[in-house]
Every structure is written in structure tokens, then in C-alpha cells.
Amino acid sequence: MDDNTRQQNTLADKAYIVMRQKIMSGDYSPYTRLAEASIGKQIGMSRTPIREALARLANDGLIRKVNSGYYVSQPDFSDIAELYELRILLEKHGIFRGITKSAYDVDALRDIKAKWEAMRGEHIVPDPGFVVRDEDFHESLLRAAGNQVMGDVLQNVNLRIRSVRMYDFITEDRIDWTINTHLSILESVIAGNLDEAQDKIERHIIKSMQVVEMRASSALRQMMNVLSDDVHADTEED
After folding, report:
1. CA–CA separation, 193 vs 198, rounded Å?
2. From CA 38, how far away is CA 50, in angstroms rounded?
3. Helix (H, G, I), strand (E, B), or coil: what is residue 163?
4. Angstrom distance (rounded) from CA 213 to CA 24
5. Which DSSP string do the residues of 102-125 spell out, in sequence order?
6. Residue 232: band (very low, low, confident or very high) from pLDDT cuts 50, 70, 90
7. Distance (Å, rounded) from C-alpha 37 to C-alpha 42?
8. Which of 139-160 are b and which e, b meaning 16 or more Cβ less than 10 Å from the residue's Cβ?
9. Distance between CA 174 and CA 126 in Å, rounded?
10. Secondary structure of 21-55 in the HEC alphabet?
11. Which of 149, 167, 180, 182 has a CA that sits 20 to 30 A from residue 211's CA?
């Protein structure tokens, strides 16, 4: 990789982080086209890293492409509750498999535990991208129960709700709570207290749903305020 390519990748990463923060803070109206030139001018970058960042944000589900332009996706709560319910069913059943079939891969459980214990020793800066680590925990735990197909189903569910779940990891307290809760769940599973583990994982997922709904709703209200301000400004100019 040459220096120019490396620099462009770094700029694209920066553009992605800045734009993601603005989107999740509700700084853009969902009806305003995210133009490369205007965004580049706003954050002081050329169009190339902005274009790459837009493609990544679209892949995350935070923006959508309409014809030739990108627009912020409005948080969709229509099926969130049902998808979270499916998460609970899948993950509790994974633990149930451990109860009925002693199917857990003990080495896999230890690897997961070591990874999350290491995180507890780090100072992890709040970042919506932490959602990927969280997804990995839940998918790995389910696969360790011995059913790879169920793990694949959970992965698909997580992809559908990732753009909303990102709101769960924008404060330090939620990162810390997630790490500690994951380790608590693992301790119950490894100790064979699987009824307790089922209860913990259900409460964990429900709490996460409550947090993301509250924060995503707040961002949506801010988006609507931005839209209202834009409309008011246009009216005054006329």
C-alpha cells in the first residue's frame, strides 16, 4: 500500500467517524441530500474520502441511497420489538441446548471469556462501532452451544438492527455495563448455572432494547427539529 492510498484510507476513516457522530446526534434532516461537496467543505476534506465514508455508512444502514443521492435513514421502530424478541428466543434456546444436550464447547467459552476480561482491563472509548464486538459475543456464545445455523440466523437478525443498536454504545457507562454483563453471563454458563444464565441474557437484551429505543427516538426528534429549522429558514428567505 503506497503512502497516498494509506492517507486516503485514514481520511476516509476520519470522515466516517465524524459523519456517523453527526447522523447519530440527529444533525442532519432525513430529507436533506448528503452531497459529497457540501459535506467535504463542512468537515474540511476532499470528495474521495467522503464518498468512501458514505458507502460505509450505507452499509451500516445509517443512510440510504435514493436514485443517485444519499439520505439519513430514519430509525425504524416498526419491527424492532419483534427482532429483539427473536434474539431472546435464539439466545435462550442456545443456553437451553446446553441444559439438555451438554453441547457447549468449553474451549470456545474460555476464549470468549478471556477476550472480554481483556476488554475490562482496557479503557474503551465510547464508540457506536463497539456494536460489532457485542454482536460477536452473542453470536459466538450461541455457536458455542453447538448449533451453527442458529448462529447464522442471529447474525442476520443483528445486521437488521445494527443501525439502531449502535445507539447503545455512545456512553462509557453502557460500554462498562455491557462488558460486565457479558462476563456475568459467561460465568453462569461455565459454572453450569444455565437457568440463571437464561435469565441474565433475557434481562440484558431487554435493557439494551429500552436504551436504543430511547436514544434513537431522541435522535429522530432532533432530525425533525433540524428539518423544521430548515423549512423556517427557507420561508424567511422567500
Report:
1. 9
2. 10
3. helix
4. 13
5. ----HHHHHHHHHHHHHHHTS-PP
6. very low
7. 9
8. bbbbbbbbbeebbebbeebbee
9. 8
10. HHHHCCCCCCCCCCCHHHHHHHHCCCHHHHHHHHH
11. 149
